[in-house]
Amino acid sequence: MTQIRISHTTVYHYRTAVSLNPHRLMLRPRESRELQLMSHTLKVSPNATITWAHDVSGNAVATASFSGMTDTLQIESNIELNLTGNPWPIFNIAATAINFPFFYSNDDRADLGALAIQQYLDPMGRLQKWARSFVRGPAPDTLELLKAISHGVSEALQYEVRESEGTQTPNESLDRGRGSCRDFAVLFAEAVRSLDMGARIVSGYLYDPQSTATGSSGSGSTHAWAEVYVPGAGWINFDPTNRSIGGFNLVPVAVARDIRQLMPVSGSYLGAPDAFAGMEVEVRVN
């Protein structure tokens, strides 16, 4: 068992006092058999009314509602949890899905829905051709195929820290040959979807006390990866940024069909168009 503490602080600065609209906060980790949440505190300044709900994907979402004016907004999330994942997991894949291609049951296919459909336009089928280049033989091992695609993403892209908002399309990533962890995750998920498998994007934190993993160093280092649904085994974590499989060092906060749905903090304000002066993000995982 690994005990982890996470602090995640976001501060917004405004040149003049503004009125804050409700802000959506996705900062509470997703509890599971391998993740036991011991405590989570959320502090917001100026004072806000906090309400909680679960979205369509089962993520815990807080809404902070404000009154009055302010020139600073600070949101601080502090987490204590235990991770019990196996660094060398064994996946009990159903016999019908051991080899690719395989078929989901009617219920699984219906429930996966858009998670098994490409989200980015690929009119020339370029991404699918790229994904199919990893299919070796008429019935390759499914898990080995997924590992090969994950490694292929890591080989195709050079990691870069990209502070700008938004995510590259899969074809943009292939063209540029570089990207952030969220670009790695989107390229992998879309490649898997092009092969008719269900995948979703995950946002959270990477536990790396030795600071040897890619994407774990520096302030503000949240992390992104993907999960693939394989019958029998269920959702399997793939972190193409680090060529890893399983969630022994990953702390998921939220899952979604599209990376745009996974902003840790989102909201707006009423005030002068040029009132926003900047923001600071600090993340510590230890």
UniProtKB/TrEMBL annotation:
Could you tell me the superkingdom of the organism this chain comes from? Bacteria
Could you tell me which residue ranges the Transglutaminase-like domain spans?
Answer: 173-242
Which InterPro entries does the entry link to?
Answer: Bac_transglu_N, Papain-like_cys_pep_sf, Transglutaminase-like
Q: What is a single Pfam family found in this protein's UniProt entry?
A: Transglut_core
What is the protein's name according to its record? Transglutaminase
Please report the organism this UniProt entry assigns to the protein. Parazoarcus communis
